[in-house]
Structures are given as C-alpha cells and as structure tokens.
Amino acid sequence: MANKKGKEEKTHVSVVTEKSIGFFETYINNPSPTGFEWQGQRLWLDYLKPYVDETYIDNYGTAMGIINPKAPYKVVIEAHADEISWFVNYITKDGLIYVIRNGGSDHQIAPSKRVNIHTDNGMVKAVFGWPAIHTRSGEKEDTPNLKNIFLDCGATSNEEVEQMGIHVGCVVTYEDEFMVLNDRYYVGRALDNRAGGFMIAEVARLLKENKKKLPFGLYIVNSVQEEIGLRGAEMIADYIKPNIAIVTDVTHDTQTPMINKITQGDLACGQGPVLSYAPAVQVNLNKLLIEVAQKNSIPFQRQASSRWTGTDTDAFAYSNGGVPSALISLPLRYMHTTVEMIHKEDVDNVIRLIYEAILVIESGQDFRTFTK
C-alpha cells in the first residue's frame, strides 16, 4: 500500500487473537487492588493454564505458570497484577467516608468518580462527591486533596454505613471499564500493569501454539503488591531463585500537554517497546534484547532511568546475590487515572520482543559483565 508521497506503508499484523482480547477486557474490568488481587489472579491463571506445565500461587497471591519446571536453568518473564485503590479510613456521623491511598492513587482525579467499596457482603456502590461550582463562586477555590475528598454511598449515618458492611479498612476501586479508542488504543483503568500480565500470558500461548521446546525452565510470573514497594516480586524472586529475569511494566508517553521531555524523556505510544538503562538493568541482557529487536525489525525506544527503574526489575536484580535483569516497558498515557491508554501495536511488539528473546536464550547462558 502506497501513501500520498509514494512510500510503501507496512501493514501491521497482530499476534493477539479475538479470544485473547476478550480475556484482556474481562481481566482489566475485574478489580485487583493491592493486597486483594486474588480474583484477578484466578482469571489470569485460568487463561494461562493450557499453555504451561504447572501453576503456583504464593502466600500473598503472586501467581505463576511454569514451563519445564524441572530444568535447573530458570528464566523469568514478569509483570505485576495489582492496581491502585483507596482504603476507607474514617466514617463521619452523617455517613460520609474519608479515604487514604492504597498505592499511588491520584486525589486530583477523584471528584465525581464512581467507585465500588469491597465488603464481605459484596460490592457497595458509592461516588466521590464534590461541591457544585455554583457554591464555590466568589471564594478561593479548594483543590482536591486527601483531607477534603470523600465518598458518599447514600447513607445518612455511620450506623447505616456499617449496616451496609462498610468499615475502616475496606478497599475502594474505580468503576471505569475497558474500551477501544479509534481502533488504535486500548483504554481502561489498571492497564498499569495488567497489560503486562496479559502480554506475558500471550507469550506463553504463542510458545505452546508454535510448539516451541525450551532448553530451560520458563517462569511466567504475575506479582502482587508492586504499587506499594515491589513486595510481591521480592518474595517470588527469593522463592524461584532465577538465573535471568525479563520484567515488563508501563512507562510514560510524554507527548501530551504538561509533561517535560527534558526530565521525562521523549517517548510515544505507537513507536514500540521501551528499553531502559539503569543500574538494575544488566548490560549484556539489555544488549541481547536490542539485538533481538533489530534482527526481527521490532521498533523500540530507549529510556534512561537514573538510580532505579521503579519497577519489579529492581527487586529481581538485587535478589539472590544479583540476578541479570532487564526491563521492557509499554508506553502509556495518563498513568494512575481511569483512562490509561496504550497502543495496540505496542502491545503486539512487546509480546513479539519477549517471545523472540526467549527463543535465543540458551540454557546456562552467562551474562556476567566481563564475559563479552
């Protein structure tokens, strides 16, 4: 197909299927707040099971599927499953509810959002209330903050709130759901980072359907509690004791207003996976990913992450005396909002890059800095 300038345009062929996207939508719409990820993990494992030899869930909910579990050389591909949320922190006598963060929840987007309060009696609907603009005229505007945002569940007293099953410590998640925008972007809450869980599951599916035999054990890991300090990755890294870890997470698309490219880098949705440079990223493993991308004509971008990546890469890299680790990031707009956006082609290309990298890793491969 030629464009107006006469140049040949390449037609992108997706590696995901309609069934895969159906799972992705269900997975995104299901809440998995930090510390309460079990329902999402169950969905993910049910999807993954046909493509792996064994599955495992640890005491805090990190889930994984394993191919060749008896192989001594262990390769991890990993994402994290949890999403940002809120905790009920204080209930007023009038039945209004104040909250604190569970992860990096953004107080500025909260007013007027619909939410679900998770209780032992099931979900209770509520909204983040906010004074009408008419009542604020002529006065200094208050901006949303943790001291003034509140939930209204339709109750008129704290006793009524308690009768609904709501108590201090109940977790609260947003209600917004998955959609496709302009046949180009996937949009939803918690694409950070259940998109990663989806992509590594797709890698397992492709390996199975293409009948690839691996010379090592492959651990497809979906960790919990990343949003509050990489805790799930810390625990599972100690359990697996891997030889290599390839982590996938999201990073910022910096093309929208109010983002400084000088400090945040120049990254864009639709331009391919992002490979990071950081102390936790092992040099030779990163070079392998770059070589794989170039050989397979997979577009990629580069990002400098300074002292740490802020992802589960850091947890794997500094575990077990040092595990060669690398990070493949998915560009994302509007992180930690309910309208996170990722490009379809980037999803495909992250899957392709991890898949092709796995096929060139050798059992017993040595990634020490001075061996190359």
Please provide a written account of the structure.
With 372 residues, the chain is α+β, with helices and mostly antiparallel strands. It folds into two domains: 18-83 and 189-371, Zn peptidases (Aminopeptidase, 3-Layer(aba) Sandwich); 85-174, Elongation Factor Tu (Ef-tu), domain 3. Helix content is 26%, strand content 25%. The protein is built from nine helices and 17 strands. The strands form three sheets. Strands 1-2-12-3-13-16-14-15 form an eight-stranded mixed beta sheet, sandwiched between helices. A hairpin with a 5-residue loop joins strand 1 (54-57) and strand 2 (63-67). Helix 4 crosses helix 9 (344-360). It is globular. It starts with 17 loop residues before the first helix and ends in a 12-residue tail after the last helix. The relative contact order is 0.17. Residues 1-7 have low confidence and may be disordered.
Proportion in helices: 25-40%
User: How would you sum up the global shape?
Assistant: globular
Q: How many angstroms does the end-to-end distance come to?
A: 42 Å
Structural class by helix and strand composition: alpha+beta
The mean pLDDT is: 94
Q: What's the β-strand tally?
A: 17
- What is the string of SSEs from the N terminus onward? HHEEEEEEEEHEEEHEHEHEHEHEEH
Radius of gyration: 22 Å
